[in-house]
Every structure is written in structure tokens, then in C-alpha cells.
User: Fold these one by one.
Assistant:
Number 1:
Amino acid sequence: MVVSADSQKIFRKNSRNKHQRVSSYAYSTRRIRLSRKPIPLFLHPFICALFIFSIYINISDFFWQVKSPEYPISNLTLPDEKQSSPQIEKTMKASLDLTTFINLNPNREEKVDYLSLSLYTVRRDDRYSIIAEKFQITLDSLLSANGIEKNGIPEEGSELKIPNMSGIFYVVQKGDTLTSISSLYGIDVENIRQINQLYSTVIHIGDKLFLPGITMDIEELNRIVGNKFLIPSSGTVKNNYGSYLDSTTGLKNYNYGIDIINRKGTAVYAAKDGIIKSTTYNPYFGRVVLMNHNSSFQSMYGSLDSIVVKPGDVVERGDLLGYIGNSGFRSGEHLQFSIFKDKEDVDTLEYIF
């Protein structure tokens, strides 16, 4: 291959230009690197101080976490617990005595309870004692508020008046005054006025006054309830009487009464006067109390957690028998309550007032 002299000149010229561009780039790069200025000396103390301070913060934070006090639940006092030393009780007593003479907050309005009545629509399988337990009032409060004076079953769909507190209504008679009623029932006159929102002490014959905390005469209550049983415990009532299919096992079972669903430890009371026949443990019903009543009736309280009576004890309606549990074959915390007549099981709900 023959290359002309002109071609050789052009090639040498291009090679020389390329070498010059590369050298210029390398020189400019070195110059840029050399032109980077160091940190001024007067900033060095500030940077060192900032670094030392960050190390101090991290170390102190670590030791604070290590040495921070722990508060286990066992050392906490819940609001409903009453734990105090004699010295604290003495101080509290002195404070209470002082407030009787000095009003520490004259602008504070004291809470006053007033009677209020709400309406409740009766549902299927409702009974008077079940409704009273549902609203946490006494049975005689419910009966007095609705003027119920005879045995019966509340009609489904009817409305009942529910007072917001326990007590009975008193019909003012001729010659009655607030002072005489107060003396008769042991209630302060001012309390009667506040509860009934009376603006004066003048009352009239036929007026109905609500007397808080007063109970109906026991003989009158027994007359109204008659030979029926009361619900023995509070909770959700499920009428499972008869044959049913267990959703857990898929087996066909038979329930001798009703189930009252509530938490373990809920009190169970005698549904009627009677004598404790036996207290035993049954593989199916768990811990059981069996009672004998007049008129050939028996009642059974099963699935109990504990029992406080013994065979032969004579108990009255409302006496404590034991506490709800989950003993026995059927799972869940509940009370198995059943009524038997002449040793034959009956629909328990039909015999509850």
C-alpha cells in the first residue's frame, strides 16, 4: 500500500491535535483537583465540639434507657381497688372533715340524681324478673312503677316503664306530709324533693312519690310472685329447652332448661324458698346444686364454678348458692338452670315470673 506524502502530513497533524486535547484534559483535571480548598481552621473547633456533643447525647440516652425504672402491673393500683396506709387514711379523713367547714370549690355543681322513666318493649321469652335483672333494678321497683299487682307473664309487644334507680312509688294519702312520709320510711325530706323534682313541700292526695331504696313488703311481693320462680342470676337468657343439634360436635343433645350466659364468678341465687337436696359433681352438668321446693317442684343449678351451700341447708329466695362457671361437658361460662315437677323436666321459662 502506497501512501502519499500529503496523506502522511494530514495523519501526523491529526495525531498531534489528538495528543494535545488529551494532555489538555488531563492537565485541566489535575488543576481542578488541586484547586479544592481545605476546611478553614477556625471551623475545626466547632466541628469537634459538635462531634463530641453527639457522642455525649448517644451515651447518655443509652444509660437512661438502661437505668429507667420499671412499673410492673402488680405494683399498679386500679381505680376500684382500695389500698391505703393508716397514715393516708388519716390524712383523707382530715381532708373530708375540713371540707364540711370550707367549700374548696364554691362554683362546683354537685351531682343530684333525679327519677327518670324509660319505656321498654317486651320481647318474646321476657319475664318480669329477667327484665329487672337486665336493667339492674329490683323486681319490686319494676312492679311498683307499672302497677303490677297480680301474677302473670308480660305480654309481648307491650311497654313497661323502667325507673333509673331502685325504689317504690308511694301514693299520697289524706293527712300525709313530706315530713310524715320521711319519718315513716326513714328518708330525708330534701332527698324526696330532689328525686321527685318538687319545688315546694306541698303535696296533694293522689300524688305519686318515688321513694329511692325502699322495698316492697315481702308478703305483698310473695303474693304477686305466687308459686313461680325468679331468675337466679344476671346475664343473657337463652331458652334451649328440648332437643337441639350441637353446632360443635354435630350430635343431638337435650337441654333440660335455660342457659344464663355471663362471666365466671357471677353470683347465683336461690330462685325460690327450699331445702338443698344435694351438691355434687356431674360429668355432664359439672358442679350442681339441687333444691327441693313445695308442690313437688325441684330446681337445678349446673355448670357452677363454686358452691357455698351444703345439703340440708334451708334457704330463702335470693340467698346465695354459688357462682357461675364452665364446669361440665358443655363449654362456655354459663349457668344451667332447670325446673322439674314430680321429677319430670318442664319448660323452665314457663315457671319463671
Number 2:
Amino acid sequence: MNKIAIALFGSRVSPRFDCAPEFKLVELDKGQTNSSHDIPAQNLNAAQRVSKLKEFNITDLICGGIDMVSAGQLDYHGVKIYSWITGEAEDALECLLQGKLQSGFMLTAGGRCCGRWRLRQNCRIGSGNNSGNTRGRGQRKGWCS
């Protein structure tokens, strides 16, 4: 059974993991939604958020931006991270269920991709491959797809 966490800001994917007021936890059984509930996170720091998600044994995380420490800790525990996602949370979930979600997607209704963020290529979390030459080019230092 897969457990998916979506960082929420209202009904949309939160722009930042560490600022999301809540997470939607969706449990899937054979590709179908088994249950869904919200987890409050408003007063949790990034480390507490990671611990909370590990408590629930999530397998996938959908979020906007995420710091490298949190991403590294979640990755270490086998969580697949879909970062830099923008759009409605339900559309992101639909896209994931279709097997089409990729980091950097800008989503519209029905989980269709309407564009992509320009992310650095050939970069791995924690690899130290951050040259810092990304300002003003629509890219972010240290973020990877």
C-alpha cells in the first residue's frame, strides 16, 4: 500500500514544504484511494515535519520547494519526492496516479502538465554539485529535478 503526502496551502500544493499549514495523507490500495485525511503542520519546523511524515510511513511526497536537509532525510528513508510542483493538490494526485508526475510540473485541471520549471540538470541531492551560477536565469541554487 502506498501512502502519499501532499504539502497543502488551501487546496493547492504548498509552494514550500517548510511553510505548509497541513499535509494531505492519501492511502492507496491497488491504485485506488483507500482513505484520505489531513495532518496539521502549522507549528512544526522542517525537522518535525520530516519526523511526522516518517511516523505515517509515507512512500511519496508532493510539494513545492523543499530544503536539501529535509529532502535528504526523506530520501534516506525511501520517500520518493516530487518537488517544485505547482497547481491544485487533486490535480497533482491525479497526475501521480496516472504515472506521469515529474518534479517541476505546472499542473492544470485533470492533472495535465501546462509547463515546467527550469531546473538544474545533472544535479543530485547532497552531491555538492551547486555552482551557484543560477541567479536571474529562472533556476534555483541547489534544487534538482
Number 3:
Amino acid sequence: MAQAHRIDVHHHVLPPFYQQEAKAEISATAVGFPQLFNWTPQQSIDEMDRTGVATSVLSISTPGVWFGDNARARDMARRCNDFSAQQVTDFRGRFGMFAALPLPDVEGSLKEIAHAFDTLKADGAGLLTSYGNTWLGDPVYAPVFDELNRRKAVVFVHPNVPGCCTATIPGVAQGLIELLFDTTRTIISLLFNGTFSRCPDVRFIFCHGGGTLAQTADRIANLARHPVAAPRLPNGVEYELKKLYLDVASMTGKRSFNAIRDLVGIEKMLLGTDYPFGPIGNIVEGIGRLGLRAADLQALERGNALGLLPQLARG
């Protein structure tokens, strides 16, 4: 542990009650990952120790906490956040937390923001890219982002499979394609509906290198010149995209990595592992094969995260 230095911003928590009470929903959206139902905090610590990760920021993955009932979602979010906060206390210096919000329940989410930030001292909020067939830039979510902007919050956005696209290609796992596309969809939604420009103090982290954003950024910029879209983007598309932080979970191949770096620069890239969906070592080894300069490697694995979340250095 004397050598541990890495900070993992994309690390999932699955409280025992969540594994049990949401087993059907988790199984439906995470086919092929039976290890999720064996997760414990100590398992994460052991994996972090093996791979030189000093601190991981916990978040709830897809399918989130909302399964069609606001009261159930509020209760689940509160219990998940209290559980994560307890791990931060029990394993001092090893965990941070992005608080789950019960979206699409806006009122419940505002209440949970107050609890998570004021009582639990969360490091940020964790959202999904979509809820049913609404994406984060939808005007219905404006009060949530206005409050997060007031708090100058870090917002970690994890991909989801939207209601429209649960079975697009028969025989192909829905997450293979749709998780990447849905990240791009929600970024476009936040751009074109003006959330990014209206809420400049929210610091966004998007998973998996922003999905297909690097490959479509030029096309998005061209569409944003339309007279309807332009007033909502007074600083332009490139300005807004370069503010985003992107983690490199599943994006450590040279072609993917270089496309992301070309878009936002190494200073906006973060180590993310998606554990326990896969071993942390796969991501660490993939980064090691990129041949990065020492300064860039340090920034990617630790420095950029501390610039965004300096409290993690204090343990």
C-alpha cells in the first residue's frame, strides 16, 4: 500500500439490501455479471490493494434506484447513500462517494441532494444518462441541475439503456452498444437544451470516454449552428465539450484513448475502472501499454482527480 497512488472515479457500490431488493432489475440490465451479487466493501479494498488504487469513489450503477415508484426510489437512494457514507467512514481514506438521486422524481432528488451534501458530505452526485425516455437535458430536470450548479457540484453520469432501445439488435447484449450511445445522447441533450451553458459551475464526469462523443463531436458542432440551437450555446460547442471530464473505463485501446485525448486533453481524463463489472487490473494494464509520458500518467491516474476532488487527498 505504500505504492498505492491511483484514484478510481468509476467504482460501484452494491449494498447487500440493494443486491437483494433490486435483484430482478439488476439481473435484467447486467446480464453476464453474476459477481455483482457477491460484492462486499472488503472485496473492493482487496482489489484496490492488488492494483495500487489508493482511493475509489463509490457510485450506484445501472439500473439505479428508480423502478417506477417514487417512494421506493427515495427510500432506496437514502439507504444506498447512508451505506456509502458508512464505508467512507469505516475505510478512512479509501473511499469517496457520489450520491444516488431518485430521478426522475425531481422533488425527491432535491431532498436527497440536501441530505447527501449537507449531512453525508458527499463528493458529488451520481446520475444515469436517461430515465425511461428522457435524457438529462430535459427541462423537467432543470431544478435539479440548478441546485447542483448552486452547490458547484461534481456530477458523475453513468450510462443507462433507455426505454426506446432495449432490444435494438437481436442476439446482441443491449449494453454493448446502447450504453455508449446513451452517454452521447445525454451530452447532446445537455448541450442543445442549454443546461451546460446555464449551469457553468457543475463539473461533469462522463463514463467510458463520453461514449461516442469523440467520433461525433464535429457533426454535433455543425448541427449546433442551427438558429434554434445557437442561442443556447453562446460560447459554442467546443467550449462546452472541453469542460467535460471523461473517464477511461473500457477506453484504454490506443485508438479510443487517442480520440478522447484529442477531444478534451489529458488534463480532463480520469482513471475509471467500472469495478466490479471487471477487474481493475485490466484497466491499469491497458493504461500501462499506452506508453504515456510520466507526467501524463500521473495526471490520468491521480492528479486530475485531485484537481477535481481535492478532498480525497485528505482521507
